[in-house]
């Protein structure tokens, strides 16, 4: 009986051992299958993870900046394009001796170009760097040995001296101190009087500041125009003018005593006749003529050689329709014979004596034209609007000069005068023929 009990217990224990062994074996099999499945599924997961890591690395790499393509423009009267700036050109100015063109850009440089190279294939220039800022405006000094700039971030005037080196080139030395900040709005223009007696700065906030050359404020003018759109110093160095929201141009005389001391800024005269705000204006080189362009879609030519101290008003000589847009600029050639007007990216050239449209240039720049200037010798018209400076032959000026001299020749009664005029006509015609032949080729 006792043996039977022991035998039964042994069988029970054996059965339990077998069951445990079977269960353990089955569990190992299931774990092995799961591991195989994990291996099969982990391969694409690891591959996806590797691809994601590669994409992340590519994304973290700095993208290569593609240099924007230069805007292309061609025309038979285009003398050259000056393309050394890497940023948009905002302002241009010719030196009073006619030898140099200054340009400033948001690439933090000011470049000085030689006008005698305008017709060459290569256009070399000298570069002045603007430290930690960029210039939006630039103007030559009367002696062409320095220039002033308006700093965009500093919101002030900065002076550079041009130091001539032995090889004929220049180095540039910046003044140690800037003018104090006086304007509350964006600057629209700066200028230096040809007399060298004062500097002008103007902003959109209706104020014009008259400075001495050391940065001391001589006077502040309130233009009372809500906003200023343009302001400038006359080429004779006596006047300061501004235009803006109102349909007129206001002109002041900056007065000095015989001893050279500043006296006052006195109202001289107004140009009245437009029916809407005036966008821009310009003087002839002798300050006896002015032109204005307005939102009303017209440009006007004025005779400003008047006795304003006796309350004599300027004479309106001509009113002509034109295409305009917000920010249109106008330029009058130094001899007063040609008018150029911008309309967005386009440019139109008129005869001042007849008012007729002589030339049209479309798509001159990829952006709105920011500045227009004639050179002092009436040979070229330059414009800015993007990274390039366009230089045009002033063919209209040559033709107008020839016509004026032919009219004078008919009226001349002195043999010496007739000979001189005939020689001038011949020289002007030869210069015009040279330009026209060059454009054909």
From TrEMBL:
Nucleus recorded as keyword: no
Renumbered to this chain, region (Disordered) spans 30-72
SUPFAM superfamilies named among the record's database cross-references: WD40 repeat-like (SSF50978)
> Where are WD repeat segments found?
82-114, 180-214, 271-303
The signal peptide stretch is 1-25
Question: Which Gene3D superfamilies does the record match to this protein?
Answer: YVTN repeat-like/Quinoprotein amine dehydrogenase
Keywords of the record, alphabetical order, are:
Repeat, Signal, WD repeat
* Cellular component GO terms, alphabetical: endoplasmic reticulum
The reply on keyword Signal is: yes
Q: Supply one GO BP term.
A: endoplasmic reticulum unfolded protein response
Q: Where is the composition biased (Basic and acidic residues)?
A: 30-41
List, as start-end ranges, the regions of compositional bias called Basic residues: 55-65
Its name, as the record gives it, is: Transducin beta-like protein 2
Species annotation: Sinocyclocheilus anshuiensis
**What are the leading ranks of the lineage?**
Eukaryota, Metazoa, Chordata, Craniata, Vertebrata
